[in-house]
Structures are given as structure tokens and as C-alpha cells.
Amino acid sequence: MDKNLKRMATMHRMQVTGLELFYKNGYYNTSVDDILKELSLSKGAFYHHYESKEDFFIEIIQNFMVRKVYSMLIEPIEGHENPATLITNCFEEALETAVHNEMDFGFLLSNFICEFNGRNQRIMKHLNDILKIWEVNLVSTLQKGKLNGYIDRHIDCEGAAVFLISSFIGIRTIMVEASPNALKYRFMSQLRQYFKSIETKQTVV
Amino acid sequence: MDKNLKRMATMHRMQVTGLELFYKNGYYNTSVDDILKELSLSKGAFYHHYESKEDFFIEIIQNFMVRKVYSMLIEPIEGHENPATLITNCFEEALETAVHNEMDFGFLLSNFICEFNGRNQRIMKHLNDILKIWEVNLVSTLQKGKLNGYIDRHIDCEGAAVFLISSFIGIRTIMVEASPNALKYRFMSQLRQYFKSIETKQTVV
DNA sequence: GCTTTTACCGACCACTCGGTTTGTAACTAT
DNA sequence: ATAGTTACAAACCGAGTGGTCGGTAAAAGC
Known about the structure:
205 residues; DNA-binding; homodimer; mainly alpha
């Protein structure tokens, strides 16, 4: 049983380092040997635990990327407050983290989507699943907000979710270079502007 | 002199095919040989005309990508009409083209930005320059719209430009898979919503 | 105590990569 | 006609690539 523990410890180490390097250099630009070198492990160790580089990556997606999206983008918007506040704060924090990350290479999920788009259906399926989960949760937060009178009832929540996802992916892409802090500030103030336009109009009492 | 013509014809053919394959498979996943095979040319031919794969790509950026961004995203928004109309129509058309493109792999510029982000400074500089040109033109269109009374004078045009660029890059990234037409429709209606919020409020006469 | 399983090593394979070198046919300038 | 230049072909190089395989030491199961 603690045999299994050792196995899992090694596999975990491989996945952590794997994700790090894949994120930094891209999937195709990171060789299995690169990962192994960092861990002082051999090819034999890798192919003892995993069938292929691709299978290895898919395990990383399911073990790490899903969780990161959950903790960074989904859990923070659960709740019954005003969706505008929830989502704005969530984005603000996600961008702030990126600004202060010395080794930021963009939004993990969209980077890989970009790399595999139209080139690797199997991996794309897994990545799109994560995107879908995010979208569904955004929609449900917005709809809850509609019921609670925060969001205008004429608003198309699916549309708003797509728009929010798009803008987030975009800003994270261009934030990598240049002056991320200025970009973040400008983006956030326009995001608030957008939210104002879909919030329920407060008729003067 | 017509010697030079032959030279330029060959180089042009290489760049056209090069861009095609780089766009389809990514820069690092396209070998020089892949391009040469398509043209029935040899390595010798390639390295006779270009110093390296990287130099070759930079020439492609300057000869083709700049022009594509101009014709697709900059020229259509030049004019003195309402920026909301100009930009909305421009995005609409750009997305429509993508929807009907059987071989769409996303937004050329942002795909490469994503691939080179934090990995190749030299190429990133050229790509960021294009992005900057686009941004500057968006800002100037918006400011012109302010002067002409179309855009609310409290709006931060730089911020709006960043927001528009972000959302466009994002929607093009997620539009590749799934149902591009539905995504386009949803995106466009939210974009109009956003523009409504930054247009000058028409006080009832 | 003996056997089996596990976790890992490291040499090796066939292949691909960007880039170099050498050779040559055709054209140009004199 | 001849000498030089241009535009390309083709073989080649060394460094990597994902993946295989035979071996081994230690632990687990009986």
C-alpha cells in the first residue's frame, strides 16, 4: 500500500515539473528529457509510469489545470452577491496575481488551447471541457444574479459569459509583455463599464 | 535586373507557403523542410536566400502579417463615422470571415504572440509592434469619435482600445473549435452592449 | 528463505531538426 | 569566348526527439 505511495509521489513530482516546463516553454518545445533532467530521473522511470508524453500531459490537465481553474476562476464567483462584484473581484485578483508573477507566460489554459487548436483533437477535447465548465459556472452566476435582481432581465447570460471569457483570455495574452499593470488597470475599468451596462438600472426612488 | 525578379519570385513563394504552414502548425512545429517539400525546393535554395529560419519568419511578419492586420482591422475603422459602428462592423466582418474559413486556426497575430510570449524576444518585438499599431489606430478612431460627439467624453479611449483588443483576441481563440457561429453571434451582441455604454447618452429632446 | 513485483537505470533505436558544404547548370558582363 | 555570378540541388552534420528494452536492486508476498 505504501508501495503505491512511493509510486504516486514520483508521478506527482513528474507532473509538477512537467506542468512548470510545459507552461514555460510550451508542450512541443519541452522534451521528456528536459523534465527528467530537472528531477534526475531516467527515461526508464518516465515510461514505467506513463504510456506516452501525451498521456502524461492529459494526466496533468486533469490533476492540475482543472483545479487551478476552479480555485482561481470558479470558486471565487460562487455566492449570491452581485455577479458584477463577484466576477470583477475575481478577475481583478487573477490579473493582480499575474502582474506580480515574475515568470508569467500568460493564461495557462488559453496558452495550451492556442498551441493545440486544430492540431491535437484529443488534448483539445480535455482543454475545451475545462473552458466549458468555466462558462457554465459564469452563466449560472449571472443567472442567479438575474433572479436576485442584480442583472437586467433582458441580458443574454450565455452571451455575457462568452464575452467575459473572451476578454479575460485576451487581456492575459497581451499582458505578458509590455506594462502589465497599466493594461490591468485599463482593462478593469472598462470591465466595470461593461458590467454597469448589464446591471439592473436603478430607477430613482 | 530580371535576375532580381527571379530571386524575388522564389522568395515570395517561400514566404507565402511559409506563412501558410506556420499558421497551420505553429512556427516550431513547421520545419524548413516542410516548406521546401511543398515547393519542391532544396535546403540550399532556402539558405541561399535567408540567413536562418528566424530571419525568414521576421520577413514574413513584415511583408504579410502587417498588411493583413492593416487591411482587416485598421483600414476598415478609418473614417469619421461613429466609432461604435465602424469598429462593430469591422469586428463583425473579421469574425464572419473566420466562421466561413474551413481552415481557421485562430487569429494569426495572437497565435504567434502566444507561441513566442516570453520565449523569443526578437520575434515578440515585431509582433508587439503590430499590436501597438492596431491599438494606436483604435485609440485615434475612438478619440475622433469623442470629438464628433459619438463617444462619451468621460471615456478612457486607451482603456477602451485595450478592452476591444482583448475581447477580439479572446473570441478568436475560443472560436476555433466548438460552434464558431453561435460564439460570434453572442460575442457581437455583447460588444454592441458595451458600445452602448460608452456612447454619448442621447438626452431626450 | 525464496519468488515475484516494483521502481528505476541507461544504452540504444530510428528519426527529425536547423544549418553547412560542395557541386553545378544557367545566366551575365566583358 | 571566357570569367564571374546567381540560383539552386544534394549529401551531409551534430544535436536532439519520443520511445524501447534488458538489466538490477530493493521491497513485498508467501
